[in-house]
Amino acid sequence: MTQDKEPVSAEDSLIARYFKPLATDPGALGLVDDAAILKSQGEDIVVTTDAVVEGVHYLATDQPDTIARKALRVNLSDLAAKGATPAGFVLTLALRSKEDAWLRPFADALGEDAKTFACPLLGGDTVSTPGPQMISITAFGRVPRGQMVGRTGARPGDRILVTGTIGDAALGLDVLKGGAVAGALASDPHAREVLISRYRVPQPRNALAQAVREHATAAMDVSDGLAGDLTKLCAASGVSATIDVASVPLSAAAAGLIAANVVCVETLLAGGDDYEVLCTVPPAQSDALIALGRAAGLTVTAIGTIMAGHEPARFLDGQGQELALKRLSYSHF
Amino acid sequence: MTQDKEPVSAEDSLIARYFKPLATDPGALGLVDDAAILKSQGEDIVVTTDAVVEGVHYLATDQPDTIARKALRVNLSDLAAKGATPAGFVLTLALRSKEDAWLRPFADALGEDAKTFACPLLGGDTVSTPGPQMISITAFGRVPRGQMVGRTGARPGDRILVTGTIGDAALGLDVLKGGAVAGALASDPHAREVLISRYRVPQPRNALAQAVREHATAAMDVSDGLAGDLTKLCAASGVSATIDVASVPLSAAAAGLIAANVVCVETLLAGGDDYEVLCTVPPAQSDALIALGRAAGLTVTAIGTIMAGHEPARFLDGQGQELALKRLSYSHF
User: Fold this and answer.
1) What Å distances lie between residue B304 and B48, B162, B307, CA to CA?
2) Domain spans of chain B?
3) Do A331 and B228 touch (CB under 8 A)?
4) Could you tell me if B41 lies within 8 Å of chain A, comparing CB atoms?
5) Mean local confidence (pLDDT), A9-35
6) Are B169 and B73 contacting, i.e. CB atoms less than 8 angstroms apart?
7) CATH domain A159-316 topology
8) pTM attached to this predicted model
9) Is pLDDT at B1 greater than 50 in this prediction?
10) What is the largest CA-CA distance in chain A?
């Protein structure tokens, strides 16, 4: 019997080469086991899972480093909104090819983000597919027992807060697709780059997680459009909401495009891929959360109020007129 | 603004319709949140993730109910081998279509297995794909702190035990592909069905988990072929092994095919998809584990001994001659 001591399968070899360096947590067991161990001292483990598919959630022309970051960050964003501290993740990678030119930058970028966000790789599975590539990540976070921030706790009178700016990623996708925004920004490469990078590489707001846990009555991340996601939160809490559209935070680029009538604000409210935190906070604690955000380098903006009732959330313009949103969210499905 | 109170996206609607009934654990939050809560009283959470891809891990002609069972059971099998009690799972479903004729039996069968194995759905993500369908599951189990059974604890002198029978699934796949086994069993529909069902619907050995935890020094499930998986376990433990091939448990159908020279035993030792538990046990505890298996309705068979050294495992026939295995395992990759 001839048999060398190399890993016995191509999958093992690939895992050892690219992903073992990311498995820094002792619970990952160096990726030599089929399973990982997630320790708990009695706190709750928060579990979230999100997949990205080539041609659906990212473009076939996107680079492997940004794909890796997006795949992990959309999950980190969920943990942030739940008030959870990242604990690790498992990765399922459906690959068409095993080219080093793709895997090396993918694994390196994933490793950088895993380190930046203190969310080590715990395990995974690599499979081959003849179809589009797909990255499915299940991420874990920790919260003190019973303290995960859900969607059901919003109460009438709560202030509605959102981090960062809204709509940039949808504009970035339009630039990449050569839409109206691309034309309008033809002579502004900086603005184009800012918007594109908002689409390709989300900035999960994990720095705000503890503040969300301490102050928010309900929270979620904005991934499918602010309007649609707020609607889901209100439905889960059994409440309604009024949003002051003029307060919704916009980037300079987005504000410029609205002023120039290239896009309308409704498009931004329904645009996807923001990966900002949307949360509701008792009025007396609103300033505290905004201040904690500022201390963490994040802008947190009050954009409206939770109302009693079950009517759809209302979006009011500067004159108090209700906007008619044709579309609430962006659906990949 | 016109907007009804139905779920705002097609994905939400699909989840509510098919998968909410499976989310029986309070930590699943009725699938209305982006995240789930996994409670822990300080025990370790065991995490495992395995994906199945159409055309790679199952056949495009396979029925949705068996696909669902296989997707969950390959993960349950990992938990069993780690000595863990199932706690729940999250599901990523990459779908080409949303036909009720596929989703209904898929979700029903998944729900039945979730109930049978006490492993409720905690959350998930559904994405659309233009390519082959794919089901990625991350499953969770619980073990008392520090008691997960790894791959690194096998010691010289330990007995090597395996549950059930080996090689049937590889023979079933050959039947489905119309290979030599299909021809040999042309007049034996019962044997064909038995082998096919071993390929399509694994029987995870979760009933043995506690006994594995109490007695095994190392364990893993046999998914890529007994020979290759034993080689991995030995490598992780820094030991070698001798297997008495005549002791390897075979089904009546497999034994008949060998007797008739349709297949050779090497094919069975390297065949994939067995989903049996392979474990190593101190000699004094071997009988106890076998008895616990019997009490749980499972056949557990001693097939060899762990040896000192780093040589590849040796497979000896009835005359003590070493078999030359051309191939150690089945690789989908």
Assistant:
1) 28, 10, 10
2) 10-143, 159-316
3) no
4) yes
5) 89
6) no
7) Phosphoribosyl-aminoimidazole Synthetase; Chain A, domain 2 (3.90.650)
8) 0.93
9) no
10) 83
